Amino acid sequence: MSLKEVLEYRRSVRYFDETKELDTEKVKHCIELAMLAPNSSNMQLWEFYHITDAETLKKISHACMDQKSNRNT
Ligand SMILES: Cc1cc2nc3c(=O)[nH]c(=O)nc-3n(C[C@H](O)[C@H](O)[C@H](O)COP(=O)(O)O)c2cc1C
Question: What is the number of structural domains in the chain?
């Protein structure tokens, strides 16, 4: 697949199969790749949290305006 095709066909994924656990190592690898993205003055002012506890996820979603995009609704 060419870069052009990757950019044209990339889509946000909003469906998650909650019966399968996310592989933490794969998540970590994706984050490492995302961190290659350019950012303002190369300040790298980011923090990532891979939260797996359902109750914590519910609480923290409030900080994201209670968006439901992390659920299968
Ligand atoms: C920096 C950034 C922040 C975003 N924040 C949100 C968000 O808070 N809520 C949300 O539902 N989508 C968010 N999105 C996803 C965009 O809304 C989504 O990419 C856009 O609707 C285009 O859809 P597509 O990715 O499927 O092409 C964000 C995307 C970026 C790049």
Answer: 1
